[in-house]
Amino acid sequence: LACSHHHCAFPVSRNQLCVWNIAAAQPLYLSGHHYSISALSFGSKINPLLVCSASHERVIVWNLDECTQKVQEGFTPRGIVIGTLLGMVLHIRFSPDDQQVAVCAGNQIYVLSAKNKAILAELDGHLAPVTAAEFCTWEKSMLISVSEDRTFKARKVWDYSTSQLIYQSGIITAFPLLSLLIDEQNKQIITGCAEGQLWIFSLISDHNYRCVAHIDLKKEQEKFCNKVWKSGKEIGEGQNNSKLCKTDNMRPEGSVETSLPILLIEHCDFFVCFHNEENTYSSQNTSYFWIGTSTGLLIINLANFELEAFLSYRDFSDLSIQIARSCALTRKAANAKVLCLVTSMFEDMIAVLEVNLAALMRTQHSDFLPYGNEKSLSVIARYRMLECFVSIYFPSGVKNTVKDKPLVFHNKIKSSGYTAAPRMTMFSPNTNLKKKEVSKWKTSCKCKNKEYPLESYPPIKYEKEISVTCKPTPIFCVQYSGDGELLACGQADKTVLIFNSNLTDVHNVFSGHDGAVNSVGWSHDRKWLVSSSEDRTLRVWSVCNKEPALIVGKEKFCKTVRFAQFYFIDTFILLCCGAEFHLLSFHLDTTKDDLKRYKQRSVCKLIQKFPMTSAMEITSLSAVNEFYSYIVLTAGSNRALEVFDLNAGCSTAVIQEAHVRSVHQICQNKGSSFSTQQPEAYNLFLTTAAGDGIKLWDLRTLR
Length: 703
Prior knowledge:
It is a single chain. The chain is mainly beta. Helix content is about 10%, strand content about 40%. The strands form 12 sheets. It has a 4-stranded antiparallel β-sheet with strand order 1-2-3-4, with helices on one face. A 4-stranded antiparallel β-sheet has the order 5-6-7-8. A 4-stranded antiparallel β-sheet has the order 9-10-11-12, with no helix packed on it. A hairpin with a 7-residue loop joins strand 41 and strand 42 (about 630-635). Mean pLDDT is about 80; it is low at about 150-155, about 235-250, about 370-425, about 445-450 and about 670-680.
């Protein structure tokens, strides 16, 4: 997204650019990209007004005056292609004189000419995607960039005329840096991360880029809400307004603490919006900045580093977007109002907001109001709040068919069935089950399975706590059985414990491993348990017997065995060993021969090994055992996510740099119903967890 004065720009149909003039209410459509537009930026000057758009295959600069004239004459407007095949572009920025364009593509920054196709400089050194870059206005040929990397190159200052690195900071935070702004008045830079933290660094030559301030927006937001609540005011409108907490540590029951990613930092034209006010709020020398987050807009006072105003998206019933994926703001106010562009995190929807800063401040600060009127404005009506400082527009010609509906999680989802038969007989499910057998299985399973009550809050308080051993012992893995009746946990003391789900009794204790147990997995019929250990062995246990039914010794594996689980409705066993995972077939026989007690009657055979691409070690594995599925997901130490098709017997897709850190957990939607036909929708979504957070993936698009 991008905003400038009376214009806003956003992609339509992924690869088409729409530039909308708010004053003329006239959209201008520009075509020139074949792939999805991933970054936009307006030029620094008004005459001529330039806009740059970037996609995977090209970077284009458009002169809006020339494009408008071409459209009026009946011709197709064309832009200047200044770069091709640079990769996935996350951010672009014009220089102050609009002569150069900084393009952040992957781990590199390209400084391109805005007039023709020429690369002026290539700046590398970041170890992760560069998320933002800004030109320094008072010092020529200086460029500042921030990145998602976790190295000491998290923030860089460049002399792009010679492509030399002037300064690199140490590690700033454990979370990706997402946004950046240069404060020309105070000669500082402001950067924000994905966890709601702001850092301000001095750019004065003899200050050595020292940190001036660190602001925790979550705490500042709580302090501001308490301050407004104590003054008798409330932010919100209508019956479903958001109530402010009375104390810093008080949160509504059932609420879940979330991150507060800083999507945007922009100058706030504060005093221009108060040119008609008799009482000026603060000194004219004070700087104010907009902070755009996923939940709303904030205004920060750089004189005291405190929050001055807060606008929450969810407080407006006419605004369909409550969680923002990205946002853009105009730097200069027009008619004492600021233009804001917001796109939804979960829907294909864009909203244009017009924020009246003076009205916003009056609703949240008693300094702007006579005390006699305070009571009448303590609760603001819905339509009055929108009329005061927010107007919502939807551009004509932009498709918007999504209606405001509550998010509903249905407790029953029907399986849609096979669309094609499996390609290998090894993975052909048994379709000869009688209807009575299937119906009987469904009935018994339905009685045992427990469904999470939809009206309940997310579990945020523990119900019970027990000590599993006499001395402190790390627990490396836990897993519920399919019916939720039993809980298995693997421990560092080489044992596997099985508890009742309410933790009232120890159901069984399995011992025999010579190393810490790192994974446990239940069979589909809940009669067997598979465990792997640091001793490079695999064991299968009967829930009713303390002796292992199957032992696969360390001579079979060259490295530690991890992530062992049953697969394909207990037909196979999957496990990881180093940078590859193994597919094993097995047969369990618990009968005993008095003459050959020492001989194991159960057998296990290796079917095939599947190595990951360019990974030293597999850090997580996930496959569905609840129904017939031939998809296996792995994550590696190279931070990649890989999809394997065991029908084809090979890797089918690789998602490079899925996270900034190595993925340590993959969770698939494993469905909820038994079927002799494969569900289509089970594998549409999956979640991955790493040190930088949790991501939800759509396997149809691998995004």
